[in-house]
Structures are given as structure tokens and as C-alpha cells.
Amino acid sequence: MSFLVGKYKDKVFKKSDSYLFIKYCEVEDNGVMKIKLHQLINHAQTETVHYLLAKYLLANINDINHLSINKVVEDTLISKTSVLKFCNYFGYDSWKQFCNNLQAEYLMEQQRLASLKMNAKLMFIKDSLKDYLKLKDEFFYEVEKTITYSKIKKFARELYKADKVFIIGEICEISLFYELQDILSYNQKKVILPRYLNKKDFDSQINNIDQETLIIVCDGLHCYQDFIYYSSINSGYDHSSLFRNNKKIFIGQKSNIQSDDLITFELPFSFNEYFIRLAITDFIYKTITYYLYRYCDDNK
């Protein structure tokens, strides 16, 4: 999906704003709706309307833009009122608006998958596999230089000092923190991961952030400034003001920002997003290991 200028949801972009328009679409349509549908299938009770509609929509996502609300009612035997409530649950006022944005996200995801498929084909060609492995080795050589033992200890120490931790960032990368959440609960830490299923839940979480909350921001492909800027556009919150008085940890690209309350763990850049996520996972698990060694001793 490639936009140069146009209208997206309720925002109109001028020709001079083409870069911002593209970035806004990328942030808004970064798989969030589809992930929400999968979350409903994974966690909702199977007899609920939300579960049934999520399952139906994922099964018909290829043709979602041509799926009328009457067709959905006919196929699922779910009332039109319930279908519209489902749209409201996702933050949309109409079925058409919901479908248009799910379709836009689907097209964006298809482009991303096409790129991943191309990389996979290149990787498993005999001659290219050596180059791929060389790139991987070079990338993780740089990771070892930037994510040092002292930084792992520093991250673990900040986690230990905090009573409440709020983790926000790229939605697929947030899932990498689930085990850390479990480990921190051992020390009676409250760890908050964003509830993206609806705006009301997210609003409630934001309102519970106080000045003592440690904010962890993870966006492996972007710098801190870009994350704050585009996430503020996406959510409607001014994240720079929202987290102004909090201690913050950022995991991502080099950020040219100096602040006493911001600790940055810089990752080397790679066009291969899997390299980035492997590096984040490695960093998290090394931190967990050190945290268990240093701060979870029952005798202390």
C-alpha cells in the first residue's frame, strides 16, 4: 500500500505532508487490528459474540472490503446491533470504517509478508545462505558491542528499584516481555502491558501511571523521538508530556537526546526485522538471568 497524499480516517494530509501521511498509515496499520482479532480468539470464550466474529473475520479477511454487514449477519446469525457493538469495541463508529481500515492493514501486511518471503528464498539459496549468515554474524557482533554486561546490570537494577513498570512500544515486540512480566511478579512488581483491545481500557491504564512508574519503551526499528512522535499521532496522547516526569528506558535505534531521566539501550540497525527481535529477546533474557541471580535470592 503506497500513499503520497490523501485522507486517512479523519485526518487530511496535504501534498507537502506526504512523508508524514505514509508514516501515519504505517504506524496506524502495523498489524494492530489483526493482532486484536487473534487475541480474542486466544482468550475470549468460544461462545461469545467477540470470539465468533473474530474467527469469521479472520477467515474472510482476503475479501473483507467487499463484506457487507448484512452478509455477516446472514452467515453468523449475529444481530446487526451486536456487529456494530463489535466495531465500537475496536474504536470504530461504523462497519464500513472498520472494514476499510482492516483491509488497509491487510494490504500492508501482505507487502510485509512478500518482503519476508523474498528474504527467505534468498536465504535458502546455497550461495546466498553464506551471505545471510555473514550478515547475521556481523549484526550480532555489533549487538555484543552495544548491549554490554554493564548495561544488562543497569537495566536489571532499574527494574528492581521500580514498584510499577509500564511497557509500551511496537506491538509485536511487547510480546517479548511476557516472561519478564512473570519474573517481576515474583518480587511483587506490578507490570502493565497496554491493552490494545479497546480505547477505554488503554485510557484507564494511562490514568494509572504515576511519577514513580518506570516506563519501558521498545521499538527496535526506530529512535526514541520517532516513537514518541508517531505514537502520539496514533493514540491521541502526547507521550512526551505524558511520560515527562517518569524514569524511562528505551530499547531501539540510536537517539540523539540527552535527558537525566532517559536510559537508552541502542541496537544496531538491520533491514531484517527478525535480527532486531532476536537481539531484543537476547537482551531481555540476559537481563532476566541477571535479575534472578542478583535480586531473587530467597535468603536476601
Automatic annotation (TrEMBL):
HTH rpiR-type domain location: 33-109
Top-level taxon of the source organism: Bacteria
GO molecular function, one term: DNA binding
InterPro entries assigned: Homeodomain-like_sf, HTH_RpiR, RpiR-like, WH-like_DNA-bd_sf
The name this protein goes by in its record: HTH rpiR-type domain-containing protein
Organism annotation: Thomasclavelia cocleata
